[in-house]
Design goal:
Length: 312
């Protein structure tokens, strides 16, 4: 990296969204760089059967590997590192990039933020192993089909927890339990009707122990009682979007912290685009790829226009 280098676009994040943008920019023959901190949630996916063209399933790690190789086939420049600061500098962006214990500042006309999000993890021993074994999952849209007709627990509370439990119950299983971790639900009449309709069991007492054993998840409640055994546990505890760089620039966000974007995936900060889990909407790999394709094409078409002259 050379400090005097000026890019058409800097991509921040090497998950499915960032790597899709890298492929597009490489084929558009743009001057760009992708900085990857190696934190993509996709790497956690043991096997996905929800991606087009992979009926036999594909791991998240393989998705990322294939995407990276595809983009690099066309000359995409991908570096390992972390963008620690981002600021506006005249008509462009200045980014501080930390790699190999050295920090370099680069400038780019536009920035595509594809930094992803972090799941709030359940209090289980060795969560990565439980995820790889398919005992703990995060996305019933992605893999609920593989959990059909099984004993399923949803760990969550409030409207989001009940919403996920209802989705699972009406779509995949008639044996669904919502573990609220001691949080009272205070259900409305409409919500009680929803719970009854789908026979969702709600357990409000705090969970004192969650453990994996013999290919299942076992939960123990405060005050004793019989251990509850489930085939699969879905964690619906929320996401923390990695939007700090955008928020520092004043980008607008919704009540969950996700960035608000226009039809071209541009944030409310002119020249700053966003794709993937940090954008409000459906959190899916194919959606993240679509965000990136839209943003990359818009950036390519606008690169000849100075940011300050660009129509929003």
């Amino acid at each position: 990296m050379h400090p005097d280098e000026h890019l058409d676009c800097l991509i921040i994040g090497g998950g499915p969204a960032g790597l899709t943008a890298a492929l597009y920019f490489a084929r558009f023959r743009r001057r760009f760089m992708l900085v990857d901190a190696g934190q993509s949630r996709a790497a956690w996916i043991p096997t996905s059967h929800n991606l087009p063209f992979f009926a036999e399933g594909i791991s998240g790690a393989d998705v990322l590997k294939r995407q990276r190789e595809h983009a690099q086939h066309y000359g995409a420049r991908i570096v390992s590192g972390r963008v620690t600061a981002l600021r506006k500098d005249g008509g462009c962006f200045a980014a501080a990039i930390e790699a190999d214990d050295v920090t370099t500042e680069l400038r780019a006309s536009r920035v595509l933020l594809a930094s992803g999000a972090m799941d709030v993890e359940p209090c289980l021993p060795n969560v990565p192993d439980a995820v790889q074994r398919g005992l703990v999952r995060y996305c019933p849209i992605c893999d609920g089909y593989e959990s059909r007709d099984r004993r399923i627990a949803v760990l969550g509370h409030g409207a989001s927890g009940l919403g996920e439990a209802s989705f699972v119950a009406r779509t995949y299983s008639d044996d669904v339990t919502l573990l609220t971790l001691g949080e009272p639900m205070n259900l409305s009449a409409e919500q009680r009707e929803e719970v009854a309709k789908h026979r969702i069991k709600i357990v409000e007492p705090p969970i004192t122990s969650l453990r994996t054993e013999s290919g299942s998840v076992v939960a123990l409640c405060a005050g004793g009682g019989k251990p509850m055994q489930f085939d699969v546990l879905y964690a619906a505890l929320g996401l923390h979007p990695r939007t700090e760089l955008a928020l520092a620039l004043g980008a607008e966000h919704d009540d969950r912290g996700n960035l608000v974007v226009d039809d071209h995936n541009q944030t409310t900060v002119r020249g700053l685009y966003a794709a993937g889990a940090i954008v409000r909407g459906l959190d899916q790999i194919v959606v993240a790829m679509g965000h990136a394709a839209v943003a990359a094409t818009a950036i390519h078409n606008r690169c000849v226009i100075p940011i300050e002259q660009e129509d929003k």
